């Protein structure tokens, strides 16, 4: 069976990803969105997205921890600090060029991009910037500023912006790089008797690793949220979602997930001490998990969506270390691609993760996603006589789930999402720039 | 150009690895070596190697740090402890089954393997084991002990053992798994007016990562060396060689590098305070680097041999962290495979390594291995206008060298060897067990 997979032109094309593209949505009030082809990317491809809030919004962001922070990351951080998270009116993101490791000139470009947005939209204030910018694409090349400036001008005119489902989808398309489908989620929720909406966009298919690799995303809501509460909610949500996914273990210089809350739907201001704070935190977190999972579903060249459940670790950090180690192991990932129940590779990656493990109490099982009985591979450190036919049956599915119980008695656990490593990953990344 | 590579049946077959197999050698006195087909592997393949010393030898070993230590690792460690590193007479290594994560039964198997060697060779002592055992291959399967026992018996009879070059090559072949060529090095050296020899064998092509992944190897010399001096020399040599290579970032449960010194060539006993200690340490270290580099040359599916030179780090550990991070980045490795000068990926992996870096003082260059002028990619944090034709010219070579200067002022550096990530890696590892 592997031979068949290997010699097929592309296993990936066999998987229909269009089911991940929503056909409709519930979108927050007071936002207009859209995208344009600015010319940064070759061809007539959408490569710049804009989101404008009708009202000054509370804003928060989580940025990459890479030591080489891209220019837009540095600029956005400064903007949020200067504004103390208030008064943000727009987000502009371009694909095709990451404006990363571009020296002093690149930082000037990022600030020029911000001021162009502010001026074009008429939201410039004397002493503070009012917009956030994001860039994704090739590292080490300067932004073609003429194209960036004219792209912003085209979007700011307004006729490409709107609040329909199609506008949101277009906005999600404008930030795609090697993504094969736009990543957009939305939902309604109630809080304190008022109905709100949340929308989220993301891009990212390679360079995806805990701590958010080439990942750009933003959440927006029409709920009124105090800036520091929004930051706390976003940080929590990201730690349980975008920091719990890995495609290839590479963490980019540009990762940014930001959030805006413009209060357009009215209701009470959510602060950290408001009784509804935990409702909102929970809504945003579950929502972020959905969006993060879409990124894994579109993992470069991936053919499998794998959920890892690490159990009974000493600490949550240890559980995450193990998940991270397994999900970054090329041997594990290629075995999943080959639908090979070579579970020794799971154990091996568990053992070098640097986490506390009790080998004599460790359990590993495949959990079929169709609800049938789980298949135990290792029970209390003893390998089981595995029914290979049953293992193959489970591994043939697109969605896989693996439980690893570390047996430490600590009781901490984590959920983590990853994908396999295929021929197409090598193909996509061996020739990305051409 | 990439397209041509991609559609060729296997770029790897284009590279002649036979040049890495020595045609002759200088071997230490007092050892007999050989290999047999025991039947652990399918077909009539060599899968068990034996080395016997005519005299009780000092012994040392470096083992995996994986939490799931394979049974032979546990058993060998106990043997060396009980003997305080003296009186070892033989090493037996099998391929095809790693005897790892095999529970209590697997540990009994490892001890049974040791006692079988001791009894068959007539070197059994009442209270101590006199041999070391190693296993490599699939994890989680029990050793077929009948085949192991009869294989040992065949080797112990002696007619398959000898001390010629061909015997040493055969011994190196017996421990191969996905290796495409046997890894054997030998040399003469002088110390205190006496001529000695060193021979080294290793296997390992996948699961190779710092801290020695599925790597089995042993060095033997006819110099007389005190056990604790031998351990110190081996640990130093391994830290600069086998712990400075990475094929895929996976660290196995079985890694073992051991060393024997039987003193058959006479001369003064080398202790830690002997004036010739540093001569021997240096000889073994340079020798270990040679052997470790052979492992990278045979990296699963690899088409490039890459030397990373990390400079001006705060500490040696930081330099190694950066080298490790770059060499384990699938994005870096696929770019090298695609001969794509996408140096942003080098920077990116440097930035998330967790080491001290001064972005504004960081320099990255390609160093052509033909002695022509280096190509600067990043100078003091500023990207250079890279001549792509020149970059392609450099990247077309099989041997690549990259210099990364972290600009911290700390002055620490490290050398590290790795390879690219190709279609063949995915092919080999997606279907290893079949």
From TrEMBL, chains A, B:
The keyword Amino-acid biosynthesis applies. Keywords: Acyltransferase, Amino-acid biosynthesis, Arginine biosynthesis, Autocatalytic cleavage, Mitochondrion, Multifunctional enzyme, Transferase. Heterodimer of an alpha and a beta chain. Its main location: mitochondrion. Catalyzes two activities which are involved in the cyclic version of arginine biosynthesis: the synthesis of acetylglutamate from glutamate and acetyl-CoA, and of ornithine by transacetylation between acetylornithine and glutamate. It catalyses: L-glutamate + acetyl-CoA = N-acetyl-L-glutamate + CoA + H(+); N(2)-acetyl-L-ornithine + L-glutamate = N-acetyl-L-glutamate + L-ornithine. CDD domains: OAT. One of its GO terms (cellular component) is mitochondrial matrix. One of its GO terms (molecular function) is L-glutamate N-acetyltransferase activity, acting on acetyl-L-ornithine as donor. It comes from the Eukaryota. The record marks 213-214 as: Cleavage. This is Arginine biosynthesis bifunctional protein ArgJ, mitochondrial. One of its GO terms (biological process) is ornithine biosynthetic process. The keyword Disulfide bond does not apply. PANTHER family: ARGININE BIOSYNTHESIS BIFUNCTIONAL PROTEIN ARGJ, ARGININE BIOSYNTHESIS BIFUNCTIONAL PROTEIN ARGJ, MITOCHONDRIAL. SUPFAM superfamilies: DmpA/ArgJ-like. Belongs to the ArgJ family. The active site is at 214 (nucleophile). Substrate binds at residues 177, 203, 214, 300, 429, 434. The record marks 136-137 as: Involved in the stabilization of negative charge on the oxyanion by the formation of the oxyanion hole. It is found in: Mitochondrion matrix. Its EC number is 2.3.1.35, 2.3.1.1. NCBIfam families: ArgJ (TIGR00120), PRK05388.1 (NF003802). The alpha and beta chains are autoproteolytically processed from a single precursor protein within the mitochondrion. Pathway: Amino-acid biosynthesis; L-arginine biosynthesis; N(2)-acetyl-L-ornithine from L-glutamate: step 1/4; Amino-acid biosynthesis; L-arginine biosynthesis; L-ornithine and N-acetyl-L-glutamate from L-glutamate and N(2)-acetyl-L-ornithine (cyclic): step 1/1.
